[in-house]
Write a structure and sequence with these properties.
Number of strands: 19
Number of helices: 21
Helix content: 25-40%
Strand content: 5-15%
InterPro entries: Lipoprotein_mollicutes-type_CS (IPR054816)
Protein name: Lipoprotein
Radius of gyration: 26 Å
Oligomer: single chain
Shape: globular
Structural class: alpha+beta
Keywords: Signal
Number of domains: 4
């Protein structure tokens, strides 16, 4: 289906660069076009379905380069949604599930798609906000940079239990603790009289990660009922304007590759019981770029390219502090393998933090350059790293750090990266008065998909349009000959030490599992090979270069479009 092509072809108009060219009677590319702003407006309306875009004044808002970027982003956004929709229907058809409408994109699918797409930017916002608390709060920065605060549009979100509901600007505030305390700073415009205003603290933002605690954030749905939401959802709604106009726009191009990566993760095959089931596609970049799935000998362990990294910073102006910190870690019996730094089986990374929480004398200092993570709520988060060999996919959050090479080569379970056989600390190469305790959590896709769960309850499932009423757990295999081949390998003695209680817990929380899968997907989408393959497949599926020529966008879109003639060549 070439829906976008049909819309543009019907216009019978020619747009100059950097907008669209519709050239149905010629196969020559226009190389010296002039921008037609009125058609650019019509194009944006046609792509987005939003008639309000016809009122944009390009002359005062955009330069030619910005118009080009807007159109490319809009095309990518539309095609990401359409490809995801079509791929989902194909998957449902192959599994025997009820399909969505073929004529138009269902609202239910679009809502689910939007919520999932937001997870990547939500992680970044959580990290940015927790980092900003020790310097200039994002609340103040947003106002100074002309972003509105609080809920701006009617939006679908999920409560803390995963139930979807709607919010709108009619009840625009986020509440902390109860209805009487509004997330707001002093003298912020629009605060209701008689209410208390407050900005959230780190303990409040991370309360839901503590055992036995819940999120303290609430919003009112469109009927005025208070709903308990996660801190990530609260941040999204507090900064909705900034989030949607800035953060989401930054990832639009990668959403196209994300759509392709997600659609290619699994193949539907017939099981030994003659049932249809999703099997792992071992050729998908989501596996080839992230971890090994085979070993050449019985004693060889799997390796992963995906790792989460935290650092706890200490003042070591006095050399005696280094010895004291190392001694404290060594006294934590049963926590670590003292020689390798790896956590012992059944231990969690937050237990490393508890070593210092329980100490009266030795405490990490506040590091304004690091954030809290949105999966475990732990301080000192550097970020998620994905290395393909020595090359980082995208910008590495630990690029140039003293410990980068050791994180790259870390092939054990979760633990502390030692700088030497005797030292758990890594001294800062730029300021020797400080040293970092580097904590690494390797992420194996097989474990994140539920492979460490003997009960099989947290196996990743393909859910139908009606949720749990239609679902199919994945098979940890790429072949019908052995439907548990990857489970068997993962649970071999050579890989047992790689199992992580932390990742196994994430696999049991579908919201966090989906968020981390999407973040890994986003990282893999930074691979030029994955990106180019996705663009070639998706652009070729929906756009026809014999009818549509993107004069100003040819290098960004047109060169990826392959016709049947190209395939024959």
């Amino acid at each position: 289906m070439k829906r976008l092509l049909g819309i543009l072809g019907a216009m019978s108009l020619v747009v100059s660069s950097p907008s669209l060219v519709v050239a149905c009677t010629t196969k020559e590319r226009i190389t010296t076009p002039k921008l037609d702003k009125e058609l650019a407006k019509q194009l944006l309306v046609a792509i987005s379905g939003n008639k309000d875009l016809a009122n944009i004044d390009f002359g005062s808002i955009f330069t030619d380069a910005e118009i080009e970027a807007v159109i490319v982003n809009m095309v990518n956004e539309l095609l990401s949604l359409q490809y995801s929709y079509d791929a989902t229907n194909t998957l449902y058809k192959n599994l025997g599930f009820e399909e969505y409408s073929k004529n138009t994109i269902d609202k239910e699918f679009k809502s689910k798609y939007n919520i999932e797409s937001r997870t990547i930017a939500e992680n970044k916002l959580f990290e940015d906000y927790t980092k900003s608390i020790t310097s200039t709060r994002l609340d103040y920065w947003a106002i100074r940079n002309n972003y509105n605060l609080n809920i701006q549009n009617e939006t679908d979100v999920k409560d803390i239990n995963g139930t979807e509901f709607k919010v709108s600007s009619a009840n625009k505030h986020v509440y902390i603790g109860d209805e009487n305390t509004i997330w707001s700073f002093t003298n912020e415009q629009g605060v209701e009289s008689g209410k208390t205003y407050s900005l959230p603290t780190i303990p409040q933002l991370t309360s839901e990660y503590k055992e036995g605690s819940n999120s303290v954030f609430y919003v009112k749905d469109t009927s005025g009922t208070m709903k308990n939401i996660s801190s990530k959802t609260a941040l999204y709604l507090r900064f909705q304007d900034y989030f949607e106009s800035k953060l989401l726009e930054e990832i639009n191009e990668n959403l196209l590759t994300n759509a392709y990566l997600k659609a290619s993760m699994f193949d539907v095959k017939t099981t030994n019981e003659s049932e249809k089931a999703p099997f792992i596609n071992s050729s998908s970049a989501m596996f080839t770029k992230t971890q090994t799935l085979t070993e050449t000998s019985i004693n060889e362990s799997w390796k992963t390219n995906v790792k989460m990294v935290w650092t706890l910073r200490f003042d070591v102006t006095q050399n005696s502090n280094i010895k004291a910190i190392n001694d404290l870690i060594k006294k934590a019996e049963g926590l670590l393998d003292q020689s390798s730094g790896a956590l012992k089986n059944g231990k969690e990374i937050n237990e490393i933090y508890k070593v210092f929480e329980n100490s009266e004398d030795i405490k990490p200092i506040t590091d304004s350059k690091t954030a809290y993570d949105s999966y475990f709520g732990l301080q000192g988060y550097q970020g998620l790293t994905i290395y393909d060999g020595d090359t980082s996919l995208g910008d590495s959050p630990i690029s140039g750090k003293t410990y980068e090479s050791k994180v790259k080569s870390w092939n054990k379970g979760a633990g502390i990266v030692k700088s030497s056989s005797e030292n758990f600390l890594t001294v800062d190469s730029e300021n020797s008065n400080y040293a970092d305790l580097v904590i690494v959590l390797p992420i194996y896709m097989i474990e994140l998909l539920g492979g460490s769960d003997e009960s099989k309850e947290s196996y990743y499932k393909i859910e139908g349009k009606n949720g749990e009423n239609e679902s199919a757990p994945i098979k940890f295999s790429n072949t019908i000959g052995n439907e548990t081949v990857y489970l068997d390998r993962w649970n071999n003695s050579n890989n047992k030490s790689l199992h992580s209680k932390d990742v196994a817990k994430l696999a049991k929380d579908s919201t966090k599992q989906t968020a981390l899968l999407n973040q890994i997907m986003y990282g893999v989408s930074k691979s030029s090979a994955s990106s180019e393959l996705a663009k070639t497949i998706i652009y070729s599926k929906y756009l026809d270069k014999d009818q549509v020529y993107y004069a100003g966008l040819w290098n960004k879109i047109g060169t990826y479009i392959k016709s049947e003639d190209d395939k024959d060549e």
